[in-house]
């Protein structure tokens, strides 16, 4: 029987106050970056877009979704700390459209004309992963200049996968709807061409494999843009257009109607209850996890502010205490929880393995909460079988077929990332807090390991060891890893689906849980061979 978790959080203490202040600063910085993405390509391009009588990308999205329902943007800071535009010039969102949860992809034409960068490709392919694995209808709002031509060597070959994936969604019976507001040229013409339904805005939609300049160069023909690829031509002559819209709002109205007539069934079980709120306020989540991920905290304090009624039925509470496992519900959906309270020993690995197998037997989705520095090392633990026990846990995570949702609230180092369903292990969604750190190991440890290797190599070769040079290199390495292990660096490379405000954790996980239940939720009894 699950009982409410008791909090031991000293919300009036200095530690809580310092944590909350530091986390609030990080949240504010992330919000500033989001605001920059919301501003599009800058005032000049926004004004030019509006002068053409067009809606901004998020205005289109807002008009598409059901009023009053949440919109969860995925990977909003993709491309951060890379050469690509932050956000990739495309919006990807989980939304409710005509009382149907959908995945929406929408180009932002104010960002380099909506052209495709390497980050855009990664974000589009991730979006299609989400649509496929969770069986969500896909709505694509198109206005794009196609490939960013100066970057063609980086986008042409990988970019072709989006069209293959689009038609594969259709082949699996997952509806695909393409609404064309402006240009959809060259390879982009296959977006409407391979969608189940196409809607085009009269007078502004343009769909052609080669625009007038390319036609002139290839054939010598002076082609008229409207006759070559206008919406009216495609509605009357080519047949590419299924629905001709008068304007943008009419196109969105038509798209909502298409989703409504799908009568899309959800194949997973619904929530067992409305889901009562936790006993403790969400604001307190700001003060639980230190920004310094080396400082420990009790992950149960997070669970108490996220789970329904703060109730938690803990599994093997006295065994493998560094891994917290148990049963709960979130937004009315039953869930299993696997959460770190520190480094993993053999007992934790064995406990986690058994619990994941039990979740699969009962078809229960699992929420992984990561704050992990890895598996314990040392002679005693190697001789005790830490490798084979850790392999059991990774085996269970790898072969588990119930949906996994991963939340990173602290460190995510080494094989601990793998054992706790990191990105490489195909969780349905990965979200992080702004204090999150991810790397092979901590910066100080990594720099120290390399220093020891250099010292040993010098001794083996009979060379004198330059301590000053080593200290300089050690400091440079530590600084590099410090920079490359931040939440911002990770989210820029799509190692997660977004950095979230800790106070929004319950809402974000609830939306993600709703999404995974659009598909069947089934466990497995089949796991790989393990050593005993």
Q: How would you describe what is shown here?
A:
The model has no long low-confidence stretch (mean pLDDT 93). α4 (118-134) runs parallel beside α6 (161-171), α13 runs parallel beside α15 and α17 runs antiparallel to α18 (467-484). Strands 1, 10, 11, 12, 13, 14, 15 and 16 form an eight-stranded mixed sheet that branches. Strands 2, 3, 4, 5, 6, 7, 8 and 9 form an eight-stranded mixed sheet that branches. The radius of gyration is 25 Å and the shape is globular. The two termini are 32 Å apart. The protein has 532 residues and is an alpha/beta fold. The chain has helices spanning 14-38, 43-51, 57-64, 118-134, 152-159, 161-171, 190-193, 212-219, 225-229, 231-238, 248-262, 300-303, 346-361, 379-383, 386-399, 415-419, 443-461, 467-484, 487-492, 505-516; strands at residues 3-4, 72-73, 90-97, 100-107, 138-144, 176-185, 197-201, 206-208, 243-245, 311-315, 323-330, 333-340, 366-372, 404-413, 429-432, 437-439.
